## 1
Amino acid sequence: MKNEQTDRYDAIIIGSGLGGLATASLLAQMAGKRVLVLERHSKLGGFTHCFRRTHHEWDTGVHYVGEMQYGSQTRQVMDFVTGGGIQWNSLGDPFEHFVFPQETFDLPDNQPDILAALVKRFPDEQAALEQYFRDIQKMRDWMVRWYVGKTLPDWMASLLTMFRRRMATMNTGEYLAKQFRDPFLRAVIAAQWPDFGTPPSDSSFAFHGIVSGDFLNGGYFPAGGGTVLAEHTKEVIEDRGGACLINRSVKNILIENGKATGVVAIHKEKEVTYRAPIVISNAGGVITFGKLCPEGHGIRERQRIARMTPGPSVNVLYMGLKEDPRKHGFDAGNYWLYARTDHNLEADPNNPEQVDGCYFGFGSLRNPGQEPHTAQIISFSEDRHWARWDNTKWKRRGEDYEQKKAATAEALLDHVELFFPGFRELIDYQELSTPLTVKTFTDHWHGTIYGSVCNQHRLYRDRWPVKTSVKNLYLTGSDVGIPGVNGALMSGVMTAGTLLAPLGLGVARIMMRAEREHKRRAKDEGNASQQVAPAVSTQSAKLPNSQEEEVNV
């Protein structure tokens, strides 16, 4: 049964991840557009949403965000997109703990102290370290041009990024080998590679530079959890006549006379047609052209998909704790637990439950007042290891699936116990998500969390521009940008900017408007510094009174 929605909107956005919401917010504020956002899940936000079990709450994808210190350009954009009502808590100093079998290196929360700590530990590498930080800034500047190039014709984008292209496309491992003699220093410098999912042996130095550079001023977490990003942005969109609808799984994009004219979505087992002169997909390039576009359209994009290599998926162990982890010496920072210093060695393909490294952190310590306390262990996985259950139904995948999940959870805990013996005793509740979880709730290609691998092909040959070969169909999200919260945020700037004005002028307008809004807010508030609260704040974070949401499969 079909019916057509009579409400008219200026644009439809497929998917409510931060890239889609940011695009909608910016179009609403900058151009007065009424934007409809359609989300397949029962909650808005994509990987920024939270879920609960009993009294516990976890973030699914927001663990820390860089460049959220008050007044930074990225913070200005974030405040503009979300309406400026979000408080960002510092993770503290240090905010990263790189834990190796032989030694732990704690990363301070500002660049001068980071350099000083590295020079103190590796005094013979001082000149190389100073040059490294200069190179990081070069890559940050280069990636700004690369981003803007997403709004331009291919030839202009190529011209814009020609300067320092060789360094940008250089293999990260190659750069580190040339720059540093000490293998442990190379391991420390590259320890944040899971933030974009591609190890040094495969990644381009530009991705290392932009992601590592994003955390030179520490890490931050939104008070109330990642879900506040969607909640605040939704208000901005709806206050300007737009709408954000959940449980709308887009089945296909309507293309008439070569133009995108709307979408067909499934809601309560019925097909509903929504029409608008502009369609923007935040579902990823592969899903957009591999599943949503009719055959015969997007030939160029389909050729790109055939060349691409998917990035990793994840296993995540969500844990509720019996007591405050600070009693056992933990803090709000990230713990990166590595079994060895060589990030490039591949896991045994015959032992998919082998864990050589993981992320380990305590979300409740970043959200002061949240109790009971929680923790997460995250390790990369591949959907092929779970492929035998691809065609099974959610929550009915069978006992063998549950047994594999249990074995995987034990492997993750065993790895943590290598570094923190006795941690198991703190666990009151645990639940594992797998690559099938990602596929079920996001429909991501191969269950990836970052899209394609972050190599030189993602920078050039396989890059996803904002405009597509289908008229009036545009892309946003991390495919347009880079992995992570800020990557998705800035993709919204690029997509909205493309629709506002050509040749990067729309992007410039957004950035200037964000700066003006920041100055106005600072003047109104009188004391801008109060916007960032320390991680040890005693302010209570109210948990949403929503029903439990199933994310485990």
Note: The longest helix spans residues 126-149.
## 2
Amino acid sequence: MELKIVIIYERPGVRTLRRVPLASLAAGLAIVVLTSCASSQDGPSGAAPSTAAPSPASSSARVSVVASTNVYGDIVSQIGGDRVDVVSIISDPSQDPHSFEANAQTQLRLSTAKVIVENGGGYDDFVDTMLKASGNPGAQVLNAVTVSGKTAEPGAELNEHIWYDIPSVGKLADQLAAALSKADAAGASQFTANASAFKTKLQVLEKEEAEVAATAKGEGVAITEPVPLYLLDACGLVNRTPAKFSEAIEAGDDIPPRVLQETLTLLTGKRVAALVYNEQTAGPETEKVKQAAEQSDVAVVPVTETLPSGKDYIGWMTDNIAAVRAAVSR
């Protein structure tokens, strides 16, 4: 019998892919993991498979990697190629990633993984919690927030959605190549070459962002959550959304009526060029904001927190930048 435990964890002021108290898991299970509701031992959804293309070596000889989301799972696959075996814990693009199930089977992978990739910054603390219980102290853990070097401004909270920051993803690619090389010295040259090729593609994305910024020139946008803010900043756009609106959405709190009205006025008054909308965490209030944008002929740009089906990281970000470009060019 497979034990599954549905977990939704909220901490005051921050909404995250949150940890589960270990004491709540069955005592008879040596190891338990958090996985997405639709997740199996398949890794990241989309173009990059959970395990890379067949290797001359057996799958057991590949470097075992666990990633907290399929965004990072795909990046691992791009760097590791056929020398890695990747499992992504959160991989369903159709559901809110803040809700998921625990599954003992994939925690077994966490306990034997050579490399583990997490976002950090409070987004996926469950990885550290589960890892401490897994008896795998030798695993190399890459924390994307730490790798990025980003810190919160005084009096502000860090935007933890690091995968929308292209330069930070480039830094992660280098760290991944180094970690995989440590785990599989024979593949070091392949990992380094793959990271270099991947970063060349990232440079194209940065160029596209700069092109948008050259024409946007400080154009205002509204958001439902701060998920895409790094990308919007790189595109030269300014977030005009009342801070308390996005804070309430992220925390899962009710939006104060005055704050909601201020946000709606941005759209009905066409004071912004676009609404950038996290379609994975939609609710009645965000739907109301979306409807106001559509009725006011303000462009709506959908974004997600995990890879859409059939996309890899580069293709996904290419589409996101193109959608922003189209919205501000109307």
Note: Residues 1-56 have pLDDT under 50 and may be disordered.
## 3
Amino acid sequence: MNIILGDALALALVTIIGFATHGETDLSFLPRFLAIYLPLSISWFLLAPWFGLFQHEITSNPKQLWRPALAMLFAAPLAALLRAMVLNTAVIPIFAVVLGGSSALGMMIWRGMYLFLKIKRSDT
């Protein structure tokens, strides 16, 4: 799977899980889903290249799995700010913290799976 597509799907899954933890899983949450998914994706794809997250040397090295988490800790506050601007509301600091932590964990899990599959494929 393409790493960029995987990143987008991982961000979507983490966002859906976030809504599910608040009991919001019907289609009426879709506009609110987009109100965080789009800013989060924009923030991620703006900042990830600066952390080398699309370079082969980084994506194929298990010792570099900390990078997606660090990048997300910068992307999440930017996403919270973009979300607040779109919704014309204030930035909620705890939302930015939870968004950063959960998204960092989600990206580390996805990137770890990607790395595992990449290594397994190269061994065969």
Note: The mean pLDDT is 93.
## 4
Amino acid sequence: MARNIILVGYRCTGKTTVGRRLAQLLGWPFADADDHIEAVAGRSVTEIFASEGETGFRDRESAALAELCARSGCVIATGGGAVLREPNRRLLKASGLVVWLTAAPDTLWGRMQTDPTTAARRPNLTAGGGWDEVRALVAAREGLYREVADFVRNGDSQSPDEIAAAILTEWNGGTTSRPSSGACGP
């Protein structure tokens, strides 16, 4: 079984920021599933959604997760919707320690408004988009995140450094040894 640390959660919960910091602490490679999808496709997430629809994007996401989760000794940040498909949830649970990063919808919406990558990386997933979408999708996906998570960290009450340190402590009692394998790049 591949042993990775996999971060799940809604958009703007800090998966990439925490993942990079955690990978540095461990001396492991870091992989962002959305970066991997974009590298393979040669297009942005928004462009993929526009040309292939959500189903096409989710197919690409499933393929990226299968490739990334097959490796060992990686910190992997998933996309917010990675848990929507049952096969993805089974794969995530079988591939390592899964950490669900959470934050209140108000916090997430505020981060989206100030994040320069939102337009290119986070297309609307509902007709209305915006605050109503954030609130509705966070609520709709909560059970799916809970299903795959080994433990939960809240980004409202902890900084990215504190979250990374807590995950490190959870991982094999806080070991910082680098595994002999683990190339996570696209």
Note: Residues 7 and 62 are 15 Å apart (CA to CA).
